[in-house]
Amino acid sequence: MTVIRAILTDIEGTTSSISFVKDVLFPYAHKRLPAFVETHGDTPEVQHWLHEAAKEAGIVEAPRQEVIELLLGWIDQDRKSTALKALQGMIWKDGYEGGDFRAHMYPEVGAKLHAWRADGLHLYIYSSGSVPAQKLFFRYSEAGDLSPLLSGYFDTETGPKREQASYEKIAAAIGEQPGHILFLSDIVEELDAARAAGLRTGWLLRAPLAIPDMPRHPAYADFDAIVL
Ligand SMILES: CSCCC(=O)C(=O)COP(=O)(O)O
Ligand SMILES: [Mg+2]
Ligand 2 centroid vs 134 CA: distance in angstroms? Predict the structure, then answer.
C-alpha cells in the first residue's frame, strides 16, 4: 500500500454539512447580494466577477440589475460558477468577521485534521467555494481556527471538480506523486475523476446515508473511520 503524504479534502458534505452551506451561507449571500453589488460594484474585483458572470450567461451587455437577478437565480440553483463563488466569498466575509455564524465542522473533523498534521501529513482543500471563502471557512470554524493546519487551497479556478485534469494540476501544484495523495469527497463523480488522475480516494457517506455493500470507492461514515 502506498504511503499517504497529503490529504486533499472537499468541504460541503465531507468536512461540513450540506445544510450549513444551503441554509445559512446561501440565504445570507442571497439577502445581501443586491446591496453588496450596489456598494462595491465599482471596485475592479467586483466588476471583474460581474463581467465573468455575465459572460458565462452570454449577457455581457445586460444592465447590472439583470446580472444581479441572474446571480440570485444561480444561488437558488446552487450553480458552481466560479464568478458567483468569488462574489459569495466577499459577502460571507462580513458574516464571519461580524460573528453572524461560524462554519460547521462535523464533530471529529477538527481533531482529525490536528492528528493528521501532527503525523506529518500535508492538508489541502479543494472546493467549489472560492479560495478566499475557503480561508474564511476554516479560520472561523466551529472547531476553532483550523487555517494553520492547512498547506493550501484549490477552487474551480484550477478546474472543474469532476475533471481528471483538475486533480493532475493539483498533484503537480502540491508536488507529490498522485498516488501519495488521498482525496476525500461525498460526490462519487469527483472521486472518479481523482482516481483517474491516480489519486487515492475516500468516499464520505455521512449519516443518514448508508455505506453500500460494494462501494465504488473506499467508503467511510466519518473521518475517524479512515485508515491510512
Ligand atoms: C467554502 S465556501 C462554501 C461552500 C460552497 O459554496 C460550495 O459550493 C461547496 O462546494 P464543495 O465543492 O465543497 O462541495
Ligand atoms: Mg462536496
Answer: 13
